[in-house]
Design goal:
The protein has helices spanning 52-64, 76-86, 104-107, 131-134, 140-153, 181-184, 195-206, 253-264, 315-326; strands spanning 31-37, 69-72, 92-95, 110-111, 123-125, 156-158, 170-171, 176-180, 210-214, 232-236, 239-244, 275-280, 286-287, 290-291, 300-302, 305-310, 331-336, 352-355. The chain has 357 residues and is α/β, with parallel strands linked by helices.
Length: 357
Amino acid sequence: MLTEISQSGLSTMSEIPSALGYRWPAEWEPHVATWVSWPHNRETWPGNFDVIPGCFAELVKTIARFEPVHILAGGAAVMADAAKHVGDHPNVKLYDIETNDAWCRDHGPIFLGGAQKVAAPSAIVDWEYNAWGGKYPPFDKDNEVPCRIASLEDRRRFTPGIVLEGGSIEGNGRGTVLTTESCLLNPNRNPHLTRARAESFLADYLGATNVLWLGRGELAGDDTDGHIDQLARFVNPSTVVAGWEDDRADRNHEPLLANFEQLSQMTDQDGAPFKVVRLPLPTPQFYEGHRLPACYCNFYMTNGGIIVPQFNDPGDEQAIRILQDLSPDREVVGVTSLNLVRGLGSFHCLTQQEPAC
């Protein structure tokens, strides 16, 4: 069954996931699999693409140590390249679903779990996608990805009808959702979306009861208008790691300080304050004179593991140590992201979890 927006533009109660008992599990909760989109768009990594499939294969194989990986690799050439690099891995499955680009966190579906009132398989939310405010056309194939997955995997599909990327929201699995004003309320996504209406969508489709807005979405080199997964992340229901820059002369210092102070005053869905931990950025990274959005907040949590971007920087080991101290029951693994981040994203941007609950 495919659930659609009603003619009035508003969903009926029978079409609202939260009313049906669905929820958006936290990333650290058990996964069925991780979904990724095989890289093939040379314009995303201009002058550097030839090394990208191999770098991506390293990420896929690392994830596959912990859980199955489902790869969107539509079209003969893309399928052949993916098969050459990872097709013989026993924990990898290839899907003939075409994409425009590799950023599955943003164009892929958000998987829901925990349906209590309906006997149905896990569901997905199919948000609209416009490549971060129309910055990188075409994006027609990317926008069709959730519908294609729902059809092939027999998933119930909910369609809010607004633009939202997965990297713009962060949840603790208990009802708290963290986001930024600069992205979610940006007129290049939904020109008429108010804060109150955005919170209503997050409540209806993700089960949010406590939406927290960071006021400073800036990160040098970022092209997403302030995705939260570059700035602050939950590692458990009550702990947030926040990007941090010590150097007062660096352009990232002031906005990250403001975010840290704001997070320190925020509370969870039960009114309890968060533990907020600084996660320092690596030293500034550049490619052909352009500042890159290199950060450690773009880690990805798997079943039993955390995969952390590495930049051949002195801060690499510190980032692993901080995340390991906060997640002693997980194996924290560093994987190089020096080439991937030249496409202006890293591991969290490239992945999307399918929860088991």
